[in-house]
Each structure stands twice: as C-alpha cells, then as structure tokens.
Amino acid sequence: MAEHTGGPTEELGEEGNSQPSPMSHSSQPSHASDLSPAPINPDPTTTYLLTRLNLPPTTPLTLALFPLPPAGERPTAPLIALVQVAIWSSPERRLTLQGIYDALMRRFVWYRENPNGPWTRSIRHLVSLKAMFVKIRLHGHLNPESTSQGTAYWTLDISQGEGDKRIRKRLYPGRPPVLEAGGESDVAELGDSD
C-alpha cells in the first residue's frame, strides 16, 4: 500500500496511466498534420495554465515561455508556475521531484549553478502543500518482487483547486489557534479568562 502524504494519491500498475503529450519532442514530424497549430480547445489543464499565464490558447506550453533572467539572477516567474509548466509539458505529464529539478536546471542557468540550493526544498514543500499537485506511485516497474513503495511522480489535477491540501491549525501559547489559510478559528480561546 502506498504512503499517504495528506493529499490525493493514485496508484498505477506497471504500465502506468499516462497519456502522450500533445507536443512532439522529435525534431522531424512524422506526419504533415504534426505541423498544424495546437487544437482550438486543448485539455482543461492546458487551458487553465495558459489562462493563468495570460497566453493565447494555441501557445505551446513549455518552460521556454518564461524569459531567461540576466546572468547570475534567479528567474522572476513564480516557482509554482515553473513547476506546473515543467510537469504538464513533460511527455507523460508527470515528473519525479528530480525530474522537476532537472527540467528547471535545463532551462535556467541559475538553478544549474545552485543545484542543492534552498529552491529544491521549496519545490518539495510546494508540491506537498498545494492541492493541485497529486502524487502518483508506480509499483513494480523496475522489479515486480521489490518491497519498495515504487517511484513517486507528481502530476496536476486542477479539479482539486488552487488552495492547500488541508487547513492546519497552529497553536500559540496564550493565543487562540490560528488557521494557516487565514480563516477564523472556531476553537475557544486558550488560557485563563479573567
């Protein structure tokens, strides 16, 4: 059984449940139809991402959409947008954490120059926190007799919304619990009343 990390998790068999990317990564198209523009009505996730990035619906979704920053500077695009596009533009629309890191390092010099920087922890936190990032475990794809839990991939599920996977209550001594998402607490104030 797969480890549950607080968010939705899917388990896939050896074959996986992947769908090919609408973008061809080969340099030579196999058919003349491969040269046609993207479909007018792409899938909902692509539409969502292009809308969030204020781009036309026929724009190919790749990390090349984000401008390269000046040498030695971090990309100005929000990390969540970079991670979303890295995952969704991958051939199977899912990536391991290392796959996400590799995609960003291939596109941006700053990430290559800081391969073990805090940005890797930020990505790990981001995909674990946000509801739209869904962990998928592939079992037995290397060794069917293995006792490991398999390889964890991350994909996008926009039906989960833009919020966090769960609201956590934080307790502070002498103060009422505060909801992490900024809502009001329905728990009575802690401490003695005068």
Automatic annotation (TrEMBL):
Record InterPro entries: Fork_head_dom (IPR001766), FOX_domain-containing (IPR050211), WH-like_DNA-bd_sf (IPR036388), WH_DNA-bd_sf (IPR036390)
SMART domains with a match to the protein in the record: FH (SM00339)
Any one GO CC term of the record: nucleus
DNA-binding region: 74-170
GO biological process terms on file: anatomical structure morphogenesis; cell differentiation
Assigned keywords, A-Z: DNA-binding, Nucleus
Cellular localisation: Nucleus
PROSITE patterns: FORK_HEAD_3 (PS50039)
SUPFAM superfamilies: Winged helix' DNA-binding domain (SSF46785)
Chain spans, region Disordered: 1-47, 173-194
Domain of life: Eukaryota
Comp. bias (Low complexity): 1-37
Domain Fork-head: 74-170
Gene Ontology terms, MF aspect: DNA-binding transcription factor activity, RNA polymerase II-specific; RNA polymerase II cis-regulatory region sequence-specific DNA binding
Protein name per the record: Fork-head domain-containing protein
Organism: Favolaschia claudopus
